[in-house]
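pipeline: protein-struct stage 2 | run 1193 | Ferredoxin:oxidoreductase FAD/NAD(P)-binding subunit
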Amino acid sequence: MSTTWTDAVVVARYDATPRIAVFDLARADGGELWEYEPGAHIDVAVGEAALVRQYSLCGPPGIRKQYRLAVLNEPASRGGSRAMHALAEGDTLRIAAPRNRFGLTSARRHLLLAGGIGITPLLSMAQTLDATGGDYHLHYCARSRTEAAFLADLENHPRVTLHFDDQPPEQLLDLGRDLGEPAPDTAVYVCGPGGFMDYVLGRAAELGWPASALHKERFSASPATAEPDGGGEGGFTVRLSSTGAEYLVPEDQSVLDVLLANGVDAPNSCGQGICGECIVRVREGDPDHRDDVLTDEERVEGLFTPCSSRSRSPILELEL
């Protein structure tokens, strides 16, 4: 269950906007990096405290000598973005093998909806669809041109529409027009700040789009998923199916916190229920899902995120 890491060096860095920095990373030993599919992200350990954060890969897949990241400097964040923005060309950091729960699905047409820094995974998707002749359209929303990254690649692209808050109203994103009613064999991908995500996904549901056609990736947990949905408050016991060991999970700790404190080799990364690294299967019990990564079908199948979700039943048995 251990994560595979390698040392990387910043081979290029530039500011795409006053708040977004772009980093090109290569292996410190000169070797090739891991292959990945569009929509993937990597863990990055950066700064003196070795903060581990997740960033989407926004370069074209297939180039294994370098990875490209774009990072928004967010003052209200937990410190990862500030540590990244302090990096200069030649600095080193640690990166982990890519993971992907936001990949392109098999569909005739793809609609990509990006808000702000949410352009990062969708840019990689657009580049791949360009290379393979896929049918798609990308809608990129930002507050203004000065806050939009990668404009040189996007503003004259025939499959891209730019929407800026300081434009005339008719040029703003209009989901009734730009998304419309559900279309057969069409997949929708959404990434961006929480308010943007909630608006797009809520409006898509109003328009009749089924959840199975909507694919999303958040940068932080949605407030709605952090709240209990009718149960799961208080403590409970988590049991490991492999050993029968049981541990009390108090109200103020997560299942993952308790497992790690007791030396259990449990996969983990974001700690917010948005990356999917910690997913395990429930063998027994009634989970209270508070993640923002599992689909309804995966929850029915018994998948569970120990970092964010809890239990309605006194005992929750996990396949660990």
